[in-house]
Amino acid sequence: MLKARIATAVPLALMFVGLVLYAQALALALIFGVFVLMGAWEWTRLSSIESLWVRTGFLLLIAASLALGNAELQLLDQVQRLNVQSLMGAACLAWAVALLWIKGYPSSAILWRSRAMRLIMGYLMLVPAWIAVMFLLSVSLGPTILICLVAIVAVADVGAYFAGRFLGKHKLAPSVSPGKTWEGFWGGFFASTAFGVLVWWLRPVELSHLNLSAVLAITLTTSLASVVGDLMVSMVKRESGYKDSGNLLPGHGGVLDRLDSICGAAPIFALGYMLAHW
Predict the structure, then answer these.
(1) Do 137 and 32 meet the contact criterion of CB atoms below 8 Å apart?
(2) Whole-angstrom Cα distance, residue 273 to residue 89?
(3) Residue 156: what pLDDT?
(4) How confident is the model at residue 86, as a pLDDT?
(5) Would you state the pLDDT for residue 208?
(6) Where are the domains of the chain?
(7) What pLDDT score does 213 carry?
(8) What is the chain's alpha carbon radius of gyration, rounded to the nearest angstrom?
(9) Contact between residue 4 and residue 37 where contact means Cβ atoms under 8 Å apart
């Protein structure tokens, strides 16, 4: 299992870094949009939607929302940053509600078990994440900042995996994801802390005004949000009776199984960056 995860993750990571560093913003918007739509298609399966027309309609709604968000916020031009900030704040609030639902599961399922509500959850998870990513690409040193976001999520995931594997005894959320432990959670937390210190130490001169506390605040809240994103999708999968969102990525599952943590982390990271950098 670990070998399959590594064999899939390394090429994906190299491809991601290469695209972010060398592709044009429009190309990245389209590529990331395709991945969002793939995740949306898998989400309709988790929402127990069987009708091809409804599933296709949901994808068209997501695609239209990405296009409208780009046009209204001018993500590929002069970004409307205050509007993006307001949207990221609303997305963070939505993730706070998701955390309460995770904590209250399975009792909380009565609030979101319906197919319509699950589609709304998927919409609020995917669209703001794409907008957050495109906003980060628009800032100074955008590609580097975006790579830092993904690296934070990856470091937290790796730290949690190995700490949970070798030390894990106490379940974090047994009704949602039985494999996750508090030891894994703290392993990811401390790995993220170490990574945050490294990022602060190596920060470019353009970001020299950011002190260590600001960098750690962004890093740690981002890593925590990535856990919430992962648990939220795990909660919906458990309610729907699926182990993975799909089988496209060997050792990982579906596209959504790779996007869930980033979807939770991206709005929080973007908002934190705005507040600290401005």
Answers:
(1) no
(2) 12
(3) 95
(4) 94
(5) 84
(6) 2-277
(7) 93
(8) 18
(9) no
HEC-encoded secondary structure of 213-257? HHHHHHHHHHHHHHHHHHHHHHHHHHHHCCCCCCCCECCCECHHH
Q: Which of 21, 3, 35 is nearest to 141 (CA)?
A: 21
Report pLDDT digits (tens) over 84-138.
999 999 999 999 999 999 999 999 999 999 999 999 999 999 999 999 999 999 9
Task: Encode pLDDT of 47-66 as tens digits.
Answer: 999 999 999 999 999 999 99
Among 107, 124, 160, CA closest to 40: 124
pLDDT at 182 over 70: yes
- The 10 Å Cβ neighbour count of residue 76 is 16
Task: State how far the Cα of 156 lies from the Cα of 268, in Å rounded to an integer.
Answer: 15
Length of the chain: 278
* Position 76, amino acid: L
Q: What is the rounded distance in angstroms from the CA atom of residue 77 to the CA atom of residue 44?
A: 32
Give CA–CA dist 74/151, Å, rounded: 26
For residue range 158-175, list pLDDT tens digits in order.
999 999 999 989 999 999
How does DSSP assign the chain, residue by residue?
-HHHHHHHHHHHHHHHHHHHHHS-HHHHHHHHHHHHHHHHHHHHHHTT---HHHHHHHHHHHHHHHHHHHHHHTTTSS--HHHHHHHHHHHHHHHHHHHHHHHHTTTTHHHH-SHHHHHHHHHHHHHHHHHHHHHHHHSTTHHHHHHHHHHHHHHHHHHHHHHHHHH--SEEETTTEEEEEHHHHHHHHHHHHHHHHHHHHH--GGGTT--HHHHHHHHHHHHHHHHHHHHHHHHHHHHHT-SSS-SSBTTTBSHHHHHHHHHHHHHHHHHHHHHHH-
State whether the Cα torsion 7-10-11-13 is positive or negative: positive
171 or 205, which is more confident?
A: 171
